[in-house]
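cron nightly-structures :: item 1 of 1
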Amino acid sequence: MGKAICTDLFHNTQTSPPPPPLHKWRGGKMTMSRRTHFYTICHIATLMSILSTRVYAQDINDDGVMQYDINNNTMNHGDGKGDADAHEDIDDIYTFENDTRHINIADPLVVDTIRVEADHARDIYRQSSPFIQTIPTETVASINDWIEQAPGVFGDSTGKGQRLVYVRGFSTRQITARFDNMPIDTGYDGITGLDAIPMNWIGKGEIKHADAYSDDAVGLGGSIIMHPVMPKKMQASFETTMTGGRFALGHGMSYGAWDWALTAGAHYSNGFRLSHAFEPTEQEDGGLRDASQSYGANIYGKVARTLGDWSNLEVSGGYTQAPRDVPTGIGTGYYRYWKFTEYHIGLAQAKWSYDTKYIRGFLQAWYQNQGNRLEVFDSPSRTTQTTLIANNSEWMDQDIGAILYLSSQPYSVGLGYIDASLRAEFRYQTHESSEHQIVKDVDIDKSSERLTFDIRPGINWQILPSLFISASGYAVGDIELAHADTSKDVVVGLVDLYNGGFSAGIDYIPTDEVKVSFRAARRLRMPTLKEQFLRSSGDAFNLNAEIAWNFQLQVDYVPTDKLKFQVTGYDSEVEDLINFHYISGIKEAYNVDEARIAGVDFATHIGPYAGISLDIAYSLLFSRDLKTDLVLTDRPEHNLRVQISYTPIDSVTLSLRGVYESKRRTEAWLSSKSAWLGGIFTLDAQVDFKTAYFTAYIRGTNLLDYNYARSFGYPEPGFQLFVGATIGID
């Protein structure tokens, strides 16, 4: 019976308009193993639906607005003025906001108010995940600090001093990152540039998993979405540590039809201290980590004006400069002494939004540039450049893009609603680099340019009060116009690649305690310019796009506001995974035949009872190269996070959080060999004091001063102490 139901279900998901047959289309047939995974998940979904009997309902008024106050445990109806964020499809389980928190019916963390605004029950449903969690951004130093607190997310360090993330087993190049709808990945190597956006710019963040239905440009492994901050009329914050500090000032105001906001900040760090258990080596004597210093400043502003009753115009821009030293890898066998003397990002955007009787959407255009200057030295002091390895290089990536989004207003059909949407995105990217080899007195110049487009039609249908269907197809094109390399005197022209996919979701809410969600998606990632043109000859690799078939089954069970459970099973098969290897000492990119990433995430929240709350999140991850049967690198199999919080009075909260990650396989740099890094256990504690206009905190991380590394040769910080405060005046 379950298989029959799921067979019909599968056919129904295929009835949405498929992407047009484009050049180099890779067919969408489902393999036998993929069908097996699909039917297994569907059997579980069928069983869960049989166990449920009642009709789900939420208490909303005719305007579709609900306000829930946790502290008073009361429900208050609003005025029906919708918030744009309420129309977003949120299948993720982790989000934060800086100040006013627009989340959903439940929040494991302590917040003042939950407010959900929507046009009708469909939008209320979309935001009904019980594990949408909020973390005040003023208590974390960077976006990476926040991300690594989320279940199923693992951190990593690189040889360039960057912080990378893995979301449910997908690496940083397979995850898109957007700030105010603008993609912030570097055009050349495709690394998600989370370090580029200062924390004082961010007011709200979300993680959308690859399995989630979305009409956004979700990456192969998901997306990290960052919304800009809207500070209070006057807001100031600071944080000090044992080796540095940061501060920020913000101002926001509304006057008639005008709104504007401005924030600026700066930071300085003398580096971080290693664990006392760290054993000194030839390249690192312990204590303060060599070459871990960083500093920088930033500014961001936005101006918006309401144009009549149905449209709005906004313009924003920002600039940040964050030079840094780059720590040397320990035990890598090859030691690099690098320093970024310049590391900046500048961006600007204009957006026209509209909401009429029949249609809503926006038109947005942006310009962005990211650049750096890297100096390579031949001594640990980073003062001499006298050998052949010494060089200075400059990179500049520019991105010009536009998004057109159209969505029909919900139309009543039978017992539910239906609406359609169309999203089109276009990007023109350029990359320029210049390397000066000092001893040889030789300049090497490289340039690349590409044009990409992404078109996504979608439909959302509430068939019954308890049954919802969403589907979206998309077509993606990547035209790499030219690549020039003066060192090889070559110019490579026109490398084009086209592909497409779909995402679909079915949600069933049989009772007011249970929600069952199934997601299926075919996601893809085009090769980056670096992957396509790294070949020493200057020729293109002609790589195929990475293709991921993603399936997810999620069950939410919320018997009371104080007891919440969530179980998510997911399975992804990745075709043509792009990897690097060395051939005769030359680094080249190639397509891996097939890899599989699967796992289970479990989350629960208990309390508060007598002021005590308990949050537990566990992730089991399976990742394999199906050709070699090797575990994929930098992906621990087990991840456990436990947090206990105690609120003796309304203004004070004490929290203790433990994190365990099992051992992981990692690549030894410049070697075909891999190494296994041992398991990790860290313990953090924090005390928060909060009033209407003042927030203060003390946070200690790695309380046990545990010596560990997430990437071979790059030890993580030992014990650290942070003290910070935020003052805000409405």
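cron nightly-structures :: done
The chain has a mean pLDDT of 76.
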